[in-house]
Amino acid sequence: MQRFPYHIAPMDPQVCPPRLSSSQSLISGLDKSPASTFKPGHSRSSSTGSSKQSKQSRHWEVMDDLQHLDMSSVPGSSLDLSIPGICEGYLMKRRKYPLKGWHKRYFLLEKGILKYSKTQQDIQRGKLHGSLDVSLAVMSINKKSKRIDLDAGDNLYHLQPPHYASSVSVYQQDMVSPPPAVTSNPGVTSKVSAWLQQTHDIDATSNDLARCQAELAELAQLIQRLHWLEGGLPITSTDLEMRISMQNLSLEKPKRKTGRVLGHSRTLSRVEAMGGMFTSSHFSTNSSSGLGASVQSIPDHVYSQLSSPQVTSPEAKKLHQDICAVSQRVHGSLKSIHEVLTLERERIREAWTSPDLRQNTSQQLATLCSTLSELDIQSRLTKVHSLSLSSDSTEESFCTVRPDQRTPSMGRHCQRAPSVAESMAEYFDASEVIVCETSSEADCSDESGLSDITTTSNSEPEEGHATATLNYRASLNSAPDKPSPVPTNTGRRTALPAPSTDNSHIGIMTILYNNIGKDLSRVSMPVALNEPLSLLQRLSEELEYSELLDIANHIDDPYERMVYVAVFSISGYAWASWRNRYKPFNPVLGETYESQREDRGFNYISEQVSHHPPVSACHAESENFTFWQDQRWKNKFWGKSVEIISSGLVNVSLPRYGDHYEWNKAVTCIHNVLSQQRWLEHYGEVVIRNTASDVCTCKITFVKSRYWSSDNSKNEVQGVVLDRAGEVVHRFGGLWHEGIFCDTLSTPKCIWKPNVQPEDHFEYYGFSHYARELNELTDDMRAVLPPTDTRFRPDQRLLEEGKVVEADKKKDEVEEKQRERRKEMAKRGEEHIPRFFK
Ligand SMILES: CC(C)CCC[C@@H](C)[C@H]1CC[C@H]2[C@@H]3CC=C4C[C@@H](O)CC[C@]4(C)[C@H]3CC[C@]12C
Asked: Is the pTM of this model over 0.90?
């Protein structure tokens, strides 16, 4: 089996940070030739891990491999334990939240302490932005993308040379001049950083904004004072307090003691009042019993004084002046912010309208969007790769360096341990994994995941698609909910025997983390992550809306027929909005699933025809259609998301017209796969062809969500039916979880809406009514089903019954038996022969 994208680097000296001498800049060290060694100045203390187990895995995983290295065999790497000199220079440092991107900082490494600041002068003046003890941190370097990741436990630092400084001289140039413009084909991260750097001083703009805010608050205060002075009536007692003090009103009733009500008289000089801040100390200690009370409690004589505003007072004039001055300042700040924004808009417009850039930019932005929205897990992932494994897809490019590896040995490659990415592959039982084939190495290794997605087509339909979707959505909302033609009283079960168990406590990250260094195919994933359905059953859910094919088989017009086939293909994705918390059981080799759906008029049969790589084949037949597919898929792990790229075609034939349609699948992406904020998305282009006739084809675009878009515009899908000449005959669109509307038919109509979910679906794995029926096993079925049928899988059955502990045990047994069978077959030199498919 081909493994997941990333490979841990054999400990090639080239990938270890070279020795840094006092005359070298940090980065020139990285840029320089491989023939030098990393020479740590300090020994490393124990792991920073919290749990014992994770500590252990970190220890043996990281140390074991690295201690086998023999650096002494590297030319010029004599064991030198002397304390290294000072290294200093500029590096790009990844910003912390919320300002993502990179900024240039001056770093100084002295006696194992790495300090950084904005400039060299700042460091010298002791004006530090931060510092860390490198000897206590875990360092990973990526020579190819020239990146250093430092995990100091509480903080992660990502450092990089100023852009494209591939040699010391370029770098030095870079130190004095602004970084170069985006070069021809750099990775997206670099482009983004470059963009941010070119952005007219973004820090200054945020300062402007902050200042502006303060000025506006000041302005509001001044205006309010003016308002009081010019006769506005106080509304609250606090206002009143202010006004009383500003106008020097006497709270004492003439010739009569009122001490019981207001305590004692208290006046403030105007100067004092105008001075600004009113604190409670300006008032009498018992003001709360008087002034703090309701306005009604203010004696009439005070009110009578309030009614004579001093419009022309010098105070008012002064206020006017102050207001003007502050307004001018606000205006100035806003103007400079406006300028920056205009400039930015212009740059974006240019990038957008330039024909070459447009395609690229939109793709990059789409990728950037999804990545930026997922950054939460990234730091943890980085931690994992820093600690023990590589997350680079290319061999020899990443290594984790512990500072106390004083006697590393070269000469033999370290034993390769599975990476997080591999773990994910095992976890999803991926067939084959794309190792970032076409993107550049720098892209692949970019831990921020800002890499170009190369396998998906541009999921961006033509201009105005957002408006079109809005219209489709509105039409869908006003369309009546058609009752499903499928009878509901079929005698099938409507509820599952037990609700789902909460699995939010199961940290996938922890599982991977705790099993670092182990053969993950032997690490069984907890059954609590599963739903009581196998992937074979899951695939049969694509037929939940088979009535669309029944209709298609009765439409004479080939274009309209195509619309129905297309909408059927979209309907197979609807489950994704409520099924992101559990994964289906991986079918064992030879497992089958069949179902007779007299209510829907079709029979379905499926089989797991291969385990490594996993391939599931299925076939369904009715009097109106035949449906079949053999699905194999590849997973692409980007750091936080997994893309599932299916490679098999889906086939449908309609007997009445002799049509044979085939189409590819969209990419399904599990965003934030490691966290509870997981969500699914489909994107890419699906093309439907009728192999029996070229009268029309259909192009469906599953639009990738943009990070600035609201939830409303998620799950957009649009399609066109084209005639032979490529002219649009029909248009349709909507959202794959809400429905599809076609406005080009003679009577525009809603073609499909997903069935209403059961009210308690959240407690039952998010299953639809249809999904609840799939694993039902009646006595009648028991008598006729083959023993390989999924419904007989004991672990899945136990899980369905809510017996998680027992299910877990059983799952181990089932998996172990499968491994044994595989071994035996291999011994005999046999190959598995599928039963129903060839
Ligand atoms: C961490 C876990 C619990 C998250 C849940 C993962 C779920 C959403 C994943 C695991 C396996 C995935 C399926 C694997 C294979 C296919 C076949 C493909 O043709 C369509 C997508 C589909 C059907 C995937 C949908 C998403 C899926 C069900």
From this structure: no
